[in-house]
């Protein structure tokens, strides 16, 4: 088979880490190659180099047998390489069609031939078997559809090598299945793809070969056949990973959160439930069925109707007050709500608690010593890599950013934790760690409301499972009775 892309000895150093250390790999036409590795292993860095977003310090590349030295993504596009990023890069107020043509004709936005573009886009979608509404503004589209737009954009530019950096982190299982069908069809037509994911089950499903990276180096490449989840996890992390969570039965105490007829526009129509101290209540459901509204209403971030009581008292309608009472919140979108990217870890570690002791010191000034000690504890106990408290959040890999948020919310010793997608984008080793931290906090009496699109996560952690559909709770299932099939039916709105 011919090689689509060859990387030889790619090396990239950042101030604190050697992100890529002499990485060599081959990608063949007709295959999906998965790239896996722990958070911070260097996957996104390598792909940004291939896509011309940053130069390597050393190393060489070839595309289709020709030397390839991109100076910008324009060069990558010209060489037939497309990339779907870990975080979307679409221009939200523009329509899909505008996003497709944007940037393609430098300096001539007035001369865009939108009719020709529409014909070309339609022909592509027909060939690939998926549709997106070309005249809709991107901001009005669900994430799964936005992602199809990203892919369509790459293909519109005639990408024959497609790089997907954690494309499924925000997709529903159904959307992920669609994506995989597309990818298989795409490579069957003679193209090639690199697929990055922390969901090892998906990796084994969609890829032909798997390259594992650890600490910036290639550990090995294995064929899909004969490779197991456990073996892959071990290669990634360098030790055995416990993929199941060990936990004793919950011993719930007093009612911490009491919700009655809670509704919040646009999608939360009225839910009632309780969460007690020492239990994890999971909320399962296809994303977009009111979970976001539920979480934001409880965190004091969204106006709502209905009754919410925290330890018997009405919850104040202010995020700051809710927080001060002892409610922690892991937001589903860490970039929008969880972190200030230009702040250091030290600052991010007290975000929302800056008015509180011990951080608010003499005369109301922030106490630097207390902040530093706290941030140090966070990076050490939550294994944030690199272990810096001074680095800005922007400079951490996606999964390590998530660990900073989770660590901050747990370390403040809350009574209630509202956790939305707590392990999104996090590697298997870190998932094991976060899951254990959640169970330990539960055993110490924390009440946890866990909202996750990941059924495995819900099944692994929950003491009780609520299923949401169209803005309501349509069922409650005990974990021992919760099969994927049973939950799946409820999630689709089929009630017994
Ligand atoms: N602009 C930067 N400045 C400093 N360090 C950086 C920068 N970009 C990345 N790094 C560091 O390089 C290392 C590799 O990061 P990278 O984003 O490639 O990891 P990753 O494998 O994609 O991880 P994840 O699975 O969490 O997305 C990390 O330690 C990260 O902190
Ligand atoms: Mg990454």
TrEMBL record:
SUPFAM superfamilies: P-loop containing nucleoside triphosphate hydrolases. Keywords: ATP-binding, Cell membrane, Membrane, Nucleotide-binding, Repeat, Translocase, Transport. One of its GO terms (molecular function) is ATP hydrolysis activity. PROSITE patterns: ABC_TRANSPORTER_1, ABC_TRANSPORTER_2. Pfam families: ABC_tran. It is found in: Cell membrane. GO terms for cellular component: plasma membrane. Residues 5-240, 243-495 form the ABC transporter domain. InterPro entries: AAA+_ATPase, ABC_carbohydrate_import_ATPase, ABC_transporter-like_ATP-bd, ABC_transporter-like_CS, P-loop_NTPase. This is ATPase component of uncharacterized ABC-type transporter. It comes from Thermus oshimai JL-2. The lineage of its organism: Bacteria, Thermotogati, Deinococcota, Deinococci, Thermales.
């Amino acid at each position: 088979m011919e090689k689509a892309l060859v990387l030889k000895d790619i090396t990239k150093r950042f101030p604190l880490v050697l992100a890529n250390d002499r990485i060599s790999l081959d990608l063949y036409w007709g295959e999906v190659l998965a790239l896996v590795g722990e958070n911070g292993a260097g996957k996104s860095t390598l792909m940004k180099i291939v896509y011309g977003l940053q130069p390597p310090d050393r190393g060489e590349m070839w595309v289709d047998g020709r030397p390839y030295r991109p100076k910008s993504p324009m060069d990558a596009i010209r060489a037939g390489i497309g990339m779907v990023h870990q975080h979307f890069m679409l221009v939200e107020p523009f329509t899909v069609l505008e996003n497709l043509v944007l940037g393609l004709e430098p300096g001539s936005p007035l001369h865009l031939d939108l009719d020709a573009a529409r014909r070309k886009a339609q022909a592509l979608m027909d060939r690939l078997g998926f549709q997106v509404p070309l005249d809709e503004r991107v901001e009005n589209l669900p994430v799964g559809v936005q992602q199809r737009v990203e892919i369509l954009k790459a293909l519109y530019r005639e990408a024959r090598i497609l790089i997907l950096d954690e494309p499924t982190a925000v997709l529903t299982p159904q959307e992920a299945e669609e994506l995989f069908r597309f990818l298989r069809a795409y490579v069957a037509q003679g193209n090639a793809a690199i697929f990055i994911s922390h969901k090892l089950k998906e990796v084994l499903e969609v890829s032909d070969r798997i390259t594992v990276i650890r600490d910036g180096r290639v550990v090995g490449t294995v064929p899909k056949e004969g490779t197991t989840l456990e073996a892959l996890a071990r290669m990634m992390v360098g030790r055995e990973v416990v993929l199941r969570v060990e936990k004793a039965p919950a011993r719930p105490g007093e009612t911490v959160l009491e919700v009655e007829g809670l509704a919040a526009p646009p999608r939360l129509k009225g839910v009632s439930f309780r969460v007690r101290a020492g239990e994890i209540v999971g909320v399962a459901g296809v994303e977009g069925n009111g979970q976001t509204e539920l979480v934001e209403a409880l965190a004091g971030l969204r106006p709502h109707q209905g009754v919410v009581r925290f330890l018997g008292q009405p919850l104040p309608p202010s995020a700051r007050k809710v927080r001060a009472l002892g409610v922690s919140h892991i937001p589903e979108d860490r970039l929008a709500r969880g972190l200030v990217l230009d702040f250091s870890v030290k600052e991010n570690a007290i975000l929302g608690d800056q008015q509180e002791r011990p951080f608010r010191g003499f005369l109301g000034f922030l106490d630097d010593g207390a902040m530093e000690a706290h941030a140090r504890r966070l990076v050490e106990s939550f294994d944030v890599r690199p272990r810096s408290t001074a680095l800005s959040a922007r400079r951490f890999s996606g999964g390590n950013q998530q660990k900073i948020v989770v660590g901050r919310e747990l370390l403040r010793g809350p009574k209630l934790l509202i956790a939305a997608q707590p392990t999104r984008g996090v590697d298997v080793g870190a998932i094991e760690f976060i899951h254990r931290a959640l169970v330990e906090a539960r055993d110490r009496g924390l009440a946890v409301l866990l909202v996750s699109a990941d059924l495995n996560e819900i099944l692994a952690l929950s003491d009780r499972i609520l299923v949401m559909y169209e803005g309501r709770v349509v069922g409650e299932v005990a974990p021992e009775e919760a099969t994927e099939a049973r939950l799946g039916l409820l999630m689709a709105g089929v009630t017994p």
